[in-house]
Amino acid sequence: MAEIVRSNLKARQLDIPGTAYYDESLGYLSEYYNGVEKRFYYVVTDEADTVLGGGGLAEFTQINNCAELQKLYIADAIKGKGIGRRLMELIEEKAREYGYDKMYLETHTNLTEAIHLYEKMGYKLIEKPEGVVHATMNRFYIKEL
What is the CATH classification number for the domain harbouring 32? Predict the structure, then answer.
């Protein structure tokens, strides 16, 4: 997943500090998500178990009872096939299962395809919340579940 995240960000000139490109946990996503209460990460693979994308969620403490959509990235080879949308639906289902009633996400204007999907899925633009870790991100969204 780290390779997919970094290649996506680099292709959009976001291989810079303040983005997921430099997240320490990127090479250890299974350790970050597995066995931690109310965190989850989905991985998309092909028949040969090649990783093609993924996305997850974790608690977003800055907003009451809110999960954050995290590290939703898809390999370029499978974009446009509805996989990102399906991943978002699964992540939102998991968030509801965990009892969250809102989903938050942060993105950047360079990620135009992602923004289009988020808005199509019902996410509404909000002001930047306090304490955002990825300081380079400049678009912030929330959705009532």
Answer: 3.40.630.30
